[in-house]
Amino acid sequence: MNQLKAGAILSYIILGLNTAINLFYTPYMLHKMGQSEYGLYALVASVITYLTILDLGFGNAIIRYTAQFRAEKKIREQYTMFGMFIILYSIIGFIALGLGTVLSFNVGTLFGAQMTALELQKAEIMMLLLSFNLAITFPFSLFGSIITAYENFVFQKVVQIIRIILNCITMIILLQMGYKAIGLVVVTTVYNILSLLVNFLYCRYKIGIKIYFSQFNWPFLKEISVYSFYIFLNAIMDRIYWSSGQFILATVAGTAAVAIYAVAITLQQMYMSFSSAIVGVFLPKVTAMVVTKQNDKILSDLFIRTGRIQYSVLCFILSAFVLFGQQFINLWAGPEYQQAYTISLLFFIPLTVPLIQNLGITILQARNQMKFRSTLYVIIACLSLGISIPLARHYGAIGCAVGTSAGLVFGHILIMNVYYYKSQKIDIISFWQNIFKMSILPMCLCAGGYILLHYIGIPNSFPKLAIAALLFAIVYLPTFWFISMNRDERNLISGILQSIRTKLASI
């Protein structure tokens, strides 16, 4: 088995591990830490996350140009580039540490109105630790990018799996011993530094990487900066969208609201991961066809086909969550987190659209036309932030989620769909005709399930909830298979299942 296939399999294992940890570890952590402490932990993590945008998109640039120099057998250029990035990342690391230190010493100014003196003290310590962690991460992240560029995926993924498992086990032990937020931050920092060190040693002694500091190539840096700029803009958008909510709520509502919002963010990340897994399966073929500059009709057909397949999976997850999500959160996190259900729906419903239109990003990248999308998303993210602040003051976590959701609707759905239709010549009208037809059955099943649950009662335990969800799946999947899916989609899935059965039989 080659590195690419093995890396892909290990990626799915990592996805499964992260999902399992989120499902089983998160409620344990909520129970042990309490709502206020967990909210504090989530808040500090979200604030420090803003500093990760200082990467400026250079990580992608390192992978791209390392691969290019390898193909061109330009060894010295490689090593000189590595030296340049070590210097750049070291400077960025010092800047991150400085900004993090300033933030830590101004925690009282930022959140003093909504936090106790003890919470402020803990937040200060955690921000200092995470700032130090980030300062170390920046220069050493170079070696992770090198490993990716050299396509040594197995080593990289195995290290990641080991880190995930050890991190989870250690945190459970510490929580059991009575340690809380600060202890978890220390564990995260230690394992992060160890994994960075392992990557460095692998590059140095296994790959044989050298680093030259003799020349700082300014024209080359300019070229890389142009390539990285729009990646950087997208990174800013992501941080504003998914990290600002906790920050806003901490200033106007307190750590309890942050904790509720953080639970919804965890579920949102899990929802997005299902889409990412699907994209990883279908996009290699799609990318190849886009690069060959197929005509608009072929690209539109691909856009619709891949969107339908992604929607088939996400629609099932969304339908099940609509019916059982509230009770799931009640049993999983606790009754005090009930608002997370509404917040999650505010995320899930509009987020589904850009997730099933991911092919559009591939088309834009292939055509080198990312400028509009990147610029628009930064603007929309800023507008969303402006909406979320007053709404959070009046309506707490729900108001903040409404602001985020509004940005998704106007940016990801309305404006980008018009852009795809007008500028990229994608048949968006036909796309939505297909999606609406596929949605009729799930909406009917959800309505019927809601009425049934109203009369027989909501499952009040995990076993009963699992049985109810299983019964829903037994009804939903066959009917969706025969009514909402077309023959090509059924043949595609049947072929994948047959291939899996054949491989398992041969083991």
Plain-language structure description:
The chain is mainly alpha-helical and 507 residues long. It has a domain at 37-216. It is built from 17 helices and no strands. Helix 1 (3-33) runs antiparallel to helix 10 and helix 12 crosses helix 14. The protein is globular, with a radius of gyration of 24 Å.
Low-confidence stretches: 280-284
Q: Strand portion, in percent?
A: under 5%
> What is the helix/strand order?
HHHHHHHHHHHHHHHHH
Helix content: over 70%
The shape is: globular
Largest sheet: none
| Rg measurement, Å | 24 Å
The rounded distance between the terminal residues' Cα atoms is: 14 Å
Report the mean per-residue pLDDT as an integer: 82
Total helix count? 17
Beta-strand segment tally: 0
Structural class: mainly alpha
